[in-house]
């Protein structure tokens, strides 16, 4: 089964009103979501808002799980928490699902939008100019633990 088939099936289930646990790949959402180790629970997006982590079809070529950083009319600007530069764009209609929880490797669920976590996201956003250095140190420590 290909990634594309898995994504399309997840979107179909979400559109039917079901919650879907979806594995996340890559490091673009570090430090809040660890790709390859954690998953997210996806649900149908009601009204996407700035700060939401969403599954979206970006720039007509691929799906990403990233955070909404701006909404300009019907256009959405997204950026991964683990990125220090670069944003993606999509239409509101291309936001296919909203992540509600992170599921750790041991199966525990952590809500994405608690007051504490959203404060951490705001602090992380303000660290954007130095984020790459923090992420570099984080990745080195993570490699040492592996």
Order of helices and strands: HEEEEEEEEHH
How many β-strand runs?
Answer: 8
Query: Helicity range of the residues?
Result: 25-40%
Overall SS class: alpha+beta
Outline the structure in words:
The protein is of the alpha+beta class. 27% of the residues lie in helices and 32% in strands. It contains 3 helices and 8 strands. Strands 1, 2, 3, 4, 5, 6, 7 and 8 form an 8-stranded antiparallel β-sheet that branches. A hairpin with a 2-residue loop joins strand 4 and strand 5. The protein is globular. The two termini are 28 Å apart.
Task: Summarize the entry for a quick read.
With 146 residues, the protein is of the alpha+beta class. The protein contains three helices and eight strands. It has helices spanning 3-15, 115-126, 131-145; strands spanning 20-23, 39-43, 53-58, 62-72, 75-79, 88-91, 95-103, 109-111.
Feature tags:
globular, eight-stranded antiparallel sheet, 146 residues, alpha+beta, 8 strands
Secondary structure blueprint with pairings:
Layout: H1 3-15, E1 20-23, E2 39-43, E3 53-58, E4 62-72, E5 75-79, E6 88-91, E7 95-103, E8 109-111, H2 115-126, H3 131-145
Antiparallel strand pairs: 1-2, 2-7, 3-4, 3-7, 4-5, 5-6, 7-8
């Amino acid at each position: 089964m290909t990634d594309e088939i898995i994504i399309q099936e997840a979107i179909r289930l979400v559109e039917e009103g079901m919650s879907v646990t979806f594995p996340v790949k890559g490091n673009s959402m570090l430090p809040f979501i660890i790709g390859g180790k954690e998953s997210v629970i996806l649900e149908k997006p009601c009204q996407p808002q700035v700060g939401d982590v969403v599954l979206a079809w970006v720039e007509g070529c691929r799906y990403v799980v990233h955070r909404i950083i701006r909404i300009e009319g019907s256009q959405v600007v997204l950026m991964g928490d683990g990125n220090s530069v670069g944003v993606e764009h999509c239409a509101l209609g291309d936001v296919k699902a909203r992540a509600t929880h992170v599921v750790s490797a041991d199966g525990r669920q952590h809500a994405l939008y608690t007051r504490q976590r959203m404060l951490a996201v705001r602090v992380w956003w303000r660290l954007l100019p130095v984020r790459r250095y923090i992420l570099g140190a984080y990745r080195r420590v993570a490699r040492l633990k592996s």
